[in-house]
Amino acid sequence: MVYCNPQGYCYTGERFVVLFRRKKKTKNQAVNDIPDDLWEECPSCRQLLYTKELEENLWVCSKCDYHFRLSVQQRLAITADPGTVEVCDDDLPLVDPLAFSEYLEKAQKAREKTGVDEAVMTSLCKIQDIPVGLGIMNLAFIGGSMGWVVGEKITRLIERCIKLRRPVVMISASGGARMQESLISLMQMPKTAAACGKLAAARLPYISVLTDPTYGGVTASFAFLGDVILAEPGAAMGFAGPRVVEVTKMKMPPGVQTAEFQYGHGMIDMLVPRKQLRETLALILQWCTAGRGEFHHGGR
After folding, report:
1. Nearest to 128 by CA among 173, 174, 179, 82
2. N or C: which end of the chain has fewer CB within 10 A?
3. Tell me, what's the pLDDT at 299?
4. Distance between CA atoms of 136 and 209, rounded to whole angstroms?
5. pLDDT confidence bin for 4, thresholds 50/70/90
6. Where are the domains of the chain?
7. What is the pLDDT of residue 255?
């Protein structure tokens, strides 16, 4: 009879022999056994957060309330009613009006990486049963920059909503105009601003939501033209980023390019934590459309 202990030593009745040895994991092996997406580090407080809990908290740090940046898919999932989304104008081609070196290759790689066609996704959907036109900008697509396609999609969304008598909600996250399209990208500023003017003339509500970050030509056009302007806490915003301003040797007060500063100086109507954003949008839409049944529980 042979008796073995867990360490692999066995007694044969006369002596101990080693029949097997359990392999010890090295430090690197132990680390590699942990899935890459199990934990997330908060960029603000540097605490490790369990990914599942972070997702349940809508990607807001439970330690310091830092709002993580979201993809279009994540933002759409927490904003629109499930099963109501009809994506618009996702077939517009990539354009290179100035034959900018490697621009088309970069844009194509961005499409493959993000799974979306451009730096904005536009759709018709419902938010708590209220039909709206919804635009969501994608920071992961060339910095959420606004070129011809982005301006065209936003303009088409607004014009479509005028015909359908729908409010518009735009969620911005952008570094500004796309430099590879130069003047053509800058022309998207008056183009989208004119579309917002048409929406106002049609007496349809426009709610703009600013997320981290919102800069440049987007800030200077449709992002700050909302009837109601909301922002997530801690979002950075301004016309030019801090590094650009530093080149001019101008000094800005601390925190000037934050949602809190803009709210304190009357540029933003409300600071809304992400957990409350969907309900806040629905409430504002109800206020703006009170007594106008065309927006409620019907309509395309």
Report:
1. 82
2. N
3. 41
4. 9
5. low
6. 70-295
7. 84
d(CA 251, CA 241): 12
For 217-233, write each residue's pLDDT tens digit.
Answer: 999 999 999 999 999 99
3-class state of residue 12 by DSSP: coil
70-295 to CATH, choices 3.80.30.20, 3.10.290.10, 3.40.50.10420, 3.90.226.10:
3.90.226.10
| In the chain, alpha helices (H) | 27-32, 51-56, 72-79, 103-114, 148-164, 182-186, 188-201, 216-219, 242-247, 259-264, 274-288
Report the alpha-carbon distance of residue 133 to residue 199 in Å, rounded.
12
Q: What are phi and psi for residue 6, nearest 5 degrees?
A: -60, -20
| Long-range Cβ pairs for the range 61-65 (8 Å, 24+) | 65/233, 65/234, 65/273
- pLDDT for the residue 110: 94
Q: Which of 41-55, 159-173, 218-232, 242-256 has the lowest mean pLDDT?
A: 242-256
Residue 136's closest CA among 55, 220, 223? 223
Q: Are 59 and 67 in contact (CB under 8 A)?
A: yes
Query: 193, 196, 138, 194: which is closest to 167 by C-alpha?
Result: 196
Query: In terms of DSSP bridges, do strands 237-238 and 206-215 run parallel, antiparallel, or are they unpaired?
Result: parallel
